[in-house]
Design goal:
By secondary structure, this protein is mainly β. It contains five helices and 20 strands.
Length: 416
């Protein structure tokens, strides 16, 4: 394996300027004049292959590659454009070090946590959630029990908060991701009854932290206790809304302003009032429309929900087979007043002193309104008579915009 002088006329090195035979194989330097190692000979002036691995490929586009789509295409307004830009930056950081970026597939299949508080049984975190997302089966209350005296697991799954008394809260949190998560933050909040939440109306109760394994670990979910006792006010009779958030700031974060369980799997809502019927079941409740929905045309409605399709009764009864049947009511008056500006906790409006036929003409079950800048509230009225033992009547108060549910509140009238 040798190159005679002149084999490489483009080479100007001293070796090829000399007379005689030039041995370019490394084997000759080791004492072998004629080797069959199979390696190609390269003289000092010949170009060599760069000393780099085959993977990852070098930066730059190759024949047949096409550039990605513009991440800002389709933006409808400045807010949407900013969201798309932030998303693109996060994607670039996630793909760091790889010239064209690895393709991980769906977010839940990446090697990251995938934290969740369910909106309903069978929820796996797909958002937006199209159903009643304010009836989470993962938030529990034990009335008349202080947090420092409560066990780590709920004493009851169907407990209802008592106003002016100590109450303990728990949340069932899940990690459906391929990676474990450490020190995930769990936040417990209460809100005045509302059909839409934002940070301005949030009232923090307490915070705790939890470690969870990956979805294959057998330790991917856990019930955690709020370390702080919650004492609901008498203003709403203990019918405040509860919100729990779970997140890890680096590997599975959440926006500071996000409190909508219909948009974000990190958020769970329990907006449910339970009225134990004697004769009749009665409730008057001021419900805010909330600032979680934008300005524009909205619809408010009250729907009677069939008991056999209402899964949350299983939580209330603390039994998968809740045993309740549909109430055959002799009197069924349920609806809300026309929205008015929020007057705060001092509002004392009541319809209970009016004849029922007059009340039925003052309230609505379906109303179209135009939302403006000011927050509004309604007075929800319920009078349900004729509920027999082990019967229940369920009502959902909902707000929609362009056919999309933006928030809701559920009232259960039952006789245990």
């Amino acid at each position: 394996m040798s190159n005679p002088n002149g084999d490489n006329p483009d080479c100007t090195c001293i070796c090829h300027a000399a007379n005689g035979v030039i041995y370019c194989c490394r084997c000759y330097a080791d004492g072998c004049a004629d080797c069959n190692c199979g390696n190609s000979s390269r003289c000092c002036g010949d170009p060599g292959r760069p000393n780099r691995p085959d993977y990852p490929k070098a930066p730059g586009w190759e024949p047949g590659d096409t550039p990605g789509t513009n991440p800002l295409d389709g933006a409808t307004d400045p807010t949407d454009r900013k969201h798309r830009f932030d998303r693109a930056v996060i994607d670039i950081l996630r793909e760091g070090g790889m010239p064209k970026g690895p393709k991980f597939g769906p977010r839940k299949d990446e090697f990251l946590p995938y934290l969740l508080i369910r909106a309903a049984a069978g929820d796996r975190g797909n958002r937006p959630y199209s159903g009643a997302f304010w009836e989470s089966p993962d938030i529990f209350v034990a009335p008349d029990l202080a947090a420092d005296a409560a066990p780590d697991t709920p004493t009851t799954l169907g407990g209802v908060a008592h106003a002016g008394a100590p109450n303990t809260l728990w949340a069932h949190v899940w990690n459906l991701g391929r990676s474990p998560v450490y020190n995930a933050r769990v936040e417990f909040y209460w809100f005045n009854p509302s059909l839409g939440f934002n940070r301005d109306s949030a009232n923090l109760i307490g915070v705790t932290y939890v470690d969870l394994g990956s979805r294959e670990s057998g330790n991917a979910h856990r019930v955690v206790k709020c370390p702080v006792t919650w004492v609901p006010t008498f203003v709403n009779g203990g019918h405040e809304c509860l919100v729990v958030r779970v997140f890890e700031p680096l590997t599975d974060p959440i926006a500071l302003s996000e409190f909508n369980a219909g948009n974000d799997r990190h958020v769970g809502q329990r907006n449910i009032a339970v009225v134990n019927a004697s004769s009749p079941a009665a409730l008057e409740l001021h419900v805010r429309l909330g600032c979680g929905a934008p300005q524009g045309n909205a619809q408010l409605l009250v729907q009677r929900v069939p008991v056999d399709g209402f899964g949350w009764l299983a939580v209330l009864a603390d039994n998968r087979d809740h045993g309740y049947t549909e109430a055959t009511l002799t009197t069924d008056i349920a609806g809300f007043t026309y929205p008015t500006p929020v007057r705060g906790d001092a509002a004392t409006d009541t319809l209970s002193e009016l004849p029922l036929d007059s009340v039925s003409r003052l309230i609505s079950r379906d109303l179209s309104i135009v939302r403006g800048c000011d927050e509004l509230e309604i007075l929800f009225f319920l009078h349900a008579d004729g509920i027999a033992t082990r019967q229940a009547a369920v009502y959902r108060i909902m707000q929609t915009m362009d056919g999309v549910i933006t928030g809701g509140y559920t009232v259960i009238a039952r006789r245990p």
